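I keep forgetting this: the sequence line spells out the residues, with the fold written below as integer tokens. I include a record here:
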Amino acid sequence: MISTTLKTVETLDAVVLGAGFAGLAMLHKLQNKLGLKAKILDKAGGVGGTWYWNRYPGARSDTESWVYCYSFDATLYREWKWTERYPRGSEILSYLEHVADRFDLRKNIMLNTLVTKAHWNEQIERWDIETAQGDRFSAKYLITGLGILSAANKPKFKGEENFKGTILHTANWPTTPVDFTGKRVGVIGNGSTGIQVMAETSKIAKELVLYQRTPQYSVPARNHPIDPAFLDGIADNLDGYFDRVRRSATVFAFEEATKGAMDVSPETREAVYEKAWQDGGGFNFMFGTFNDIAVNRESNATACDFIRKKIAEVITDPVKCELMTPTDLYARRPLCDNHFYEAINQDNVRVLDIKKHPIIEFTDEGIRTAEGEVKLDYVIFATGFDAVTGNFVRIDFQGRNGLKMSDHWANGPRAFLGLSAAGFPNMFSLYGPPGPFTNQPPAIEWQAEWVSELIKNMMDRSVSMIEATPEAEQAWLDECISIEGQTLFGKIDWWVSGANIPGKTKAVSFYMGGFGEYMKHATACAANNYDGYIQSGARTAMAAE
């Protein structure tokens, strides 16, 4: 409920939106490195960002834990011991809670605080920020860490209000555990979240029905416990290890491939795929086997054929196997799973093709498609997010001359380096679009350091305002479009392009040139006195701060 009572304006150096990986890293830089007066505002009831909400059964990262974390503090890295290769959501949340405590961040974090608007005040060159609770802030800098997968997408179906069972969404899971033992459960969606919740729930549900539109390519995760000595070995050369990781294209732990799939014999290619299948990991399979799976159709087809063959080896029911076998490009987020296809093979699991037989309506007792009605106790929406831009357009961001972010991004996101939108001074978006498509935490941490150095540079030179130029913003977007056009990612419809949201403009949302190259662009910008930005000196009005 939105408050009608406005409170006294609190003056800050910076406001950070979001208490996930990005927000915590940024607050640490602002508070503990620069000594600025800063606060995080987050609508959630706790820190963690996406991982505060990811409580659904089977929730895990699909990135190895030892690189799905911060590297700015060797003691932190050494003292926190991850327990599994792919950490559960609860372990990631515990880690972020530990970070908030260890670096004394909670004193400057406001939870249960929904930001409704942030307007640039031309007169005093500051951001005016308001919340649904009536809180008001004036900040010189506005930094967003809103996350690309945090604005839940829940399609509406006819008759939902009549369903007597329970409807859940993986992105807004109850805080109390849900027991599916002996229950009839329907799952709508089979992306990364869907395959996780399916594999976990299938173990205890009486009947599990997957409502699937598009079958996915997935490889085994091969999850396993971690030897603490392995983590200590990384800690012994932490900077060197993460420097190698960040200079890669994808910012993962594995070594990226240097040869194309068609550069080797069929026998060698098969052996490489088989080793990757046994080693596990979706990103490893796509980028650690051959270097052209994401750009060359012929090479991509060899990966498709291999995964299809593996699916057929696991799913013995011919009808289910046909339904679960993808026929398009292997060019979506490269999934990995914990026995997903094995779950599909179970007798208590059914698969319904809702592209061929769409959902007609919810009934009192379940869901009706053209194939008939299925009675259910629970329906789980694993339908993902209004990704990338969803949270940006749900807040009333207004920049110079009343420019609305929703209008500026009407045809897709645009921001120089994925950090700064033209017309929005002193505003920076960590892992914002169109930024690098990589493993997030190490990339986010690097961006937070880059932004903190920019702010320090402004303070040292008495610069009051910095803003990306329209020309730099357009040039960056053009480069992102050009690079994606050389890949297969732009040839499909998926959540990255906005295809999962009816009416949303298909757009290029990421820089696909790799994080190593991204760092070169951002470093060159800073080295050349922040080339691509307009800067202005201190104004008299700022003396009142």
Residues 209 and 350 are 5 Å apart (CA to CA). The longest strand covers residues 9-17.
